[in-house]
Design a protein that fits this description.
The structure is a homodimer.
Chain A (H helix, E strand, L loop, with lengths): L1 H10 L6 H8 L13 H21 L7 H18 L1 H9 L6 H28 L7 H13 L1 H4 L8 H15 L3
Chain A binds a DNA duplex through loops.
DNA sequence: TCTATATCTAAACGGTTGTTCAGATCAAAG
DNA sequence: CTTTGATCTGAACAACCGTTTAGATATAGA
């Protein structure tokens, strides 16, 4: 699974052969079929696993507090979690179209759950009067796109630590939905 | 080229065969080679063409004015331009890894030019005192990620017009880098 | 040590891949 | 009407695809 994830992230699902994955772990291609029914299931398991782990990790965060506090926690959590597993993020955002329709629907549903939490935080902030988003659904999509984009340029060896990145993005997110 | 762009956007570069592209335009696969040297060049021409057209269209916009005015123009331009050609945008952002190293470097350079303009607008705003971005480079990447993300959910048949989307995003962008 | 089970290899399956090429077909120019 | 050059077909090429399978090999329990 790790080898497949790495190769899918690097070259794309369609461009990676079962023989390449097998070679990466030192077996013949046929041996992989003792563990997975087919290539599509391999991709689906990786993506569903990533989304479920994301939701599970998110569920462990505190749920109470002000909308502003929850928004900050969401922002920092998202950046930290995504920067820690760039391959899984990359594959999960890029290979949606490689999923069969049924598998796509499942992953899409999980993603939707995640987006919905942010949307409800923004709605709560609106109700509180502490946040302002003209369209909470679109604001949620915009914030997530902004935050996830960090994985395209962040390099652990670069000039910024994860903490610093968190701070910069939180500053922007906070202001973007401020009253 | 149009057929290839459409298919690449839908299924991905690696997943589309020359025979599929040929069938889309009603010829045999071999006939395509009267116009392109190989499949890689086809992708490269599409991506380079998109980036060059983007830069050319951007270059026609007014360059003067306050940093705030230029930021608004950049924001609205980006959304309008990208929503008008979703396939080209999708392919150009998704298939970077399908490019040969030399071709990747070219496309990456063009993209960098585009990002640099936004970064310089933010720096000018900082100098003017009208904008505030803790790290202009990262703020530029964040804003572009947010704006480009619109192509993932926007549907022409949806509840919002392009003008409305522009307005919502400009509001968020403006606030995110406000003093 | 024998047996049962898990795991692997090596080969094969039918099908598809990007690309080439000889020859057919077409349109326009002389 | 003939010629030229562009364009296309249809077949072929070697290589690779995902997947299956028979049989070899390893592992662990009785």
């Amino acid at each position: 699974m790790e080898a497949a994830l790495r190769l899918f992230a690097r070259h794309g699902f369609a461009a990676v052969s079962m023989r390449q994955i097998a070679a990466e772990v030192g077996v013949q291609a046929g041996a992989l079929y003792n563990y997975i029914p087919d290539k599509q299931s391999l991709l689906f398991d990786l993506m569903r696993g990533h989304m479920e782990a994301l939701l599970a990790a998110r569920a462990e965060r505190p749920k109470g507090g002000s909308a502003l506090a929850r928004l900050e926690d969401f922002t920092r959590f998202h950046i930290r979690y995504h920067l820690a597993r760039p391959d899984a993020v990359f594959v999960s955002y890029m290979e949606l179209r490689s999923l069969s329709p049924e598998n796509f629907a499942v992953v899409e549903g999980l993603r939707r759950q995640y987006e919905d939490e942010l949307e409800s935080i923004l709605r709560a902030g609106e109700a509180e009067g502490s946040l302002s988003a003209a369209d909470p659904r679109i604001a949620a999509m915009a914030v997530i796109a902004m935050l996830t984009g960090v994985t395209t340029w962040y390099r652990a060896a670069g000039r910024l630590t994860v903490d610093q990145v968190e701070g910069i993005y939180w500053d922007m997110v906070r202001k973007s939905v401020s009253v």
